[in-house]
C-alpha cells in the first residue's frame, strides 16, 4: 500500500520535462512517465548543496527523494550527532536556515525529487527538562533515567535513550506539538518523514500523532529489529514503512563473508517484513561508524560495497535507500566537511571529502534500472555458481550479473528474458536518453533472449529496457505489469496455461499431514486466473498432497504429487517464486508443524509472557501433565509468543500471565484455533 503511493507519485511529475530549467540537460533526464523507486540519504549535506544536487544529479538520474538531516534547532557542537538532540522545532542549523530549506524543497520538487525529513520526536536534548522555545517543561517528559534494558518493552519506550530526555508521547499536548512541527514541514512541501528512534515510541503514540497530520506524508520508522527483543518492526507497519535491518545484516554478511547465492530468497527469510512495508539499505549513518565488520560500508576494501548496492537496487524487495556520507578517518564523532560537494568541496572520486555514493556510476544508473523494471517487481531466470556468482532477471525489463568472486571471472551466456536488441551495460557506461546511445560497452540479446556477459572479479553488469541502443519500441518499453508480480498466498497451487484448459480445475486428495486439507470431490475446485497461471488456495500449508489438474472433468493430467513446490509449470513443479509470484506468507516465522503450538500476541505487553495450562488432551491419548503455576515462559516467534508441545493436542485449558501477575481469565484452545490474538482464538495459520 505504501509502495503503491510511491509509484503513483508519477502523476505528480507530469510536466516534469517541461519544468526542466536551463541548467539541466534534458538528455540526462528520466522520462516523466517512469516511476521513481529509490531514494538517497544525503547525510549532513547543506540545503543549498542538496538543491543543486537535485537539479544536476538526483532528478536526472531518477531518484525519488532525499532523506535530509534533522533540520530543526539542536545543541551546539561539531559532532554530527548534535543534530539528534533537538532544542526547538524551528528550522535552523548546520545545513542552513529556514529560507534555504524552503528553497531546497521547492527546487528539488521541480526536479522530480521529494524531501523526507529526519524527524527526531522521541526525545529532546540531554540537558534539563526545559525547552522554552517549544515550549516543553518537565511535565512533558517521562521520568525514567535508568539505562535501557532492550529486553524490557516498558523501559525501551519510557526511559531516556542514552540520556536523551524522553518525551511523554502519550500526552495530547506533546503529540500536538510534534504534529505542528511535522505539519509545518508538510506545508513547506516536505513529502515524508523518517521517524527517528521509533522503537522508543509506542506504535499507538505514532498512530495518534499521525492522525493529527495534514496531507498524507510518506512515513518510515526507524525500528531496529533484534533477536529476542520484545518490540518488533512488525508492530509498526500499520503506521507506514519500517526499516529492515535484517536486510542490511544479510547483505553485510553474504557480501563480506561469501555466499551471495544464498540471497536469492532473502525477501522470504524468516522475520523479514513484507516487501511493501520495508525500507532497505546496505548501510546507514550509524552502522557505517559503529558496525563496521558486520555492515558493508565505503570503508570496505575493494568494490564489495559498490556491488552490494547494485544488488540492492536490482533485487525486488523493499524501498531502497542509498547511503551517501563523508569520509571521517576513524573519528566516529567527526562532523561534516565545512563546505558542500557543489560549493567548494568535492566528491571523493574528485579528491573531495564527500563520499557521494549516489553518484557512483553503477549505483546512479541502477536507480534507473530499478525505475524501469518497477512494473515487473519479480525475480526470474536466476542463475548462480553455487557460491559467489549470481545473475537474475526482472521479467522482460532488466537483467543483472553480479560477480563477488575474488578470483574467477564470469564468461558465459545467460537467458535474460529480454527482447532482442543491443543494450547499454549501465554499470560500465552511461546511457543517453536523448540519443539512445551508450558511452561504454554494450550487450547484445538475441531472438531467444540469450546474451553473453563477461564480468570481472568483484564487479557487475546490468542491462534494462530503458537503456536499449536506439531506444525501445512499443509495448517492450512499457511491459504490462507482469502477471507474475501478482501476490499469491504460500498455500496456493498454480498451473501454467500451456495445458490450454478452458476451465482449469484442481482435484486433490491425501494431504500430509492428513486432515490439513479436506479431499476434493471430482472434478475438484475451479482455479482463478492469475496472470499466465491459474491458481487455487488450499488454505493451509501441507507437506505433500496428491493433485490432478483437469479441464472441469475433461482432459486431465496424470496423478501428480505436490511436495514443496506449488507451481506446475509446463510439466515441472517449481516454487511459486520461481514462477514469479510475490508470495505472501501470513507469518513466515510461524511454521506449521505436526507439533501443537499455542501462541499469544501479548497485546498486554507482558515483559515475561508465560503460559499456565491444565487438562491437556492430546491427539494420541498420551497425557501431558499440568503446568506448575505460573507455568512456562513463552518464546517469541515473529509477532507471537508461543509454546510448543511435544505432540498434537486436541484441547487445552490455559492462562497467559506476566510470569504470574496480570493474568488473563481462564481460556481454552482447541486444535483448530491455538493462537490467541486480539483476545480471540484463531488458527495458527491466520496469526500475523
Ligand atoms: C550522544 C552521545 C552519547 C550521549 C548522548 C546524550 O554519543 O554518548 O549519551 O548523546 O548526551 C545519535 C548518536 C548517539 C548520540 C545521539 C544524540 O548515534 O551516539 O548520543 O545521536 O546526540 C538504538 C536506538 C536507535 C538509535 C541507535 C543509535 O534504538 O533508535 O540506538 N538510532 C537513532 C539514530 C541515531 C541517533 C538516535 C537514534 C538518537 O539513527 O543516529 O543517535 O536520536 C541494539 C538495539 C537498538 C539500539 C542499538 C544501539 O541493536 O536493538 O535498538 O539502537 O543496540 O544501542
Ligand atoms: Ca519514548
What can be said about this structure in brief?
16% of the residues lie in helices and 27% in strands.
Please tag this protein with its features.
single chain, 688 residues, alpha/beta, TIM Barrel, Immunoglobulin-like, 4 domains, 8-stranded parallel beta barrel, 5-stranded mixed beta sheet, 42 strands, 16% helix, flat, disordered N terminus, binds acarbose derived pentasaccharide, binds calcium ion
Account of the protein in words:
It is a single chain. This protein is of the alpha/beta class and 688 residues long. Helix content is 16%, strand content 27%. Strand 41 (675-677) and strand 42 (680-682) form a beta hairpin. Helix 6 crosses helix 7 and helix 10 runs parallel beside helix 11 (361-372). Mean pLDDT is 90; it is low at 1-27 and 586-594. Residues 122, 157-158, 166, 169, 200-201 line the site of calcium ion (CA). It is an enzyme of class 3 (hydrolase). Keywords: Calcium, Carbohydrate metabolism, Glycosidase, Hydrolase, Lyase, Metal-binding, Signal. This is Alpha-amylase.
